[in-house]
Amino acid sequence: MTVSITGATGFIGRRLVQRLHADNHFVHVLTRTKSKAEEVFPVKDFPGIVIAEEPEWKDSIQGSNAVVNLAGLPVSTRWSPEIKKEIKKSRIRVTSKVVDLINSLPGARPTVLVSATAVGYYGTSETQVFVESSPSGNDYLAEVCREWEAAALKVNKDVRVALIRIGVVLGKDGGALARMIPLFMMFAGGPLGSGQQWFSWIHLDDIVNLIYEAILNPSYKGVINGTAPNPVRLSEMCNHLGNVMGRPSWLPVPDFAIKTILGEGASVVLEGQKVLPTRAKELGFQFRYPYVKDALKAILS
């Protein structure tokens, strides 16, 4: 297959490109900065990979069986009003562009668009359980996710759409863990904030496999939660992290420290939500890491 990917140089995108490339699929990296993509995917390691800047996106998409849309500024950063605008704009702009390009193709279109979104769609709660059919929340991230998904759903009706609402992705070289580990080192670990908030996580390999399945399997369509089947309270996650790192985990990381690092973006960590992958389980998806303890051991050992 030929797969075009936006956000290919990001945390999930890199691993997805490696996986597709290892399985001998053709990959088109849709990028805004060619030099960065060439650094991440050097020709010697990724022969045959096509790196396309924006003016060439249409040709790349035209020759593709599938498009995966992962582009967007990370949310786990300090949110200033400017950054909040940019977080929203970056997602909606690229998604709309990709959809417009697919819709403008004269002949054969890609058969599937797999578009990332986030569990932020549901808003936050310490008591509710969220599944794919749950209503959207009413905070800033929920609004971003609604508009992001709406942009993807404007694609031509003959294109299958899978919207993957991604939880907190755990992996070695980026994402939430890369930010939590220094906090652990500084404060000797411990729960972030109250520790009672829910943490809906997924191992990087599992989210990549879920996206891969969504590309290949026609029954993957509509909204699919990209979270592991066993969310945990943050205090439990931090206990396991402390154990794996050999750090004590009784001293809570104070709210102010998290807010200092993440600003308003800290709400993602401090408020949390319990999200279950009901649809993935119905589809028979096999999680390699259903339990956070095993995921952390695999990542940090």
Describe the structure.
Helices cover 42% and strands 18% of the residues. The protein is α/β, with parallel strands linked by helices and 301 residues long. The mean pLDDT is 89. It holds the Pfam family Epimerase.
Summary keywords:
301 residues; alpha/beta; seven-stranded parallel β-sheet; two-stranded parallel ribbon; 13 strands; 42% helix; 18% strand; globular
Give a short synopsis of this structure.
With 301 residues, the protein is an alpha/beta fold.
Strand content: 15-25%
Low-confidence runs (pLDDT<50, min 5 residues)?
none
Report the strand count: 13
Instruction: Give the overall silhouette.
Output: globular
- The strand order across the widest sheet is 3-2-1-4-5-7-11
Structural class: alpha/beta
Q: SSE order, as H and E?
A: EHEHEHEHEEHEEHEEHEEHHHEHH
Question: Which helices and strands, and how do they pair?
Answer:
Layout: E1 2-6, H1 11-22, E2 26-31, H2 34-40, E3 50-53, H3 57-62, E4 66-69, H4 81-104, E5 112-118, E6 129-130, H5 140-152, E7 160-166, E8 168-171, H6 175-187, E9 198-199, E10 201-203, H7 204-216, E11 222-226, E12 232-233, H8 234-245, H9 255-262, H10 267-271, E13 274-275, H11 278-282, H12 292-300
Parallel strand pairs: 1-2, 1-4, 2-3, 4-5, 5-7, 6-13, 7-11, 8-10
Antiparallel strand pairs: 9-12
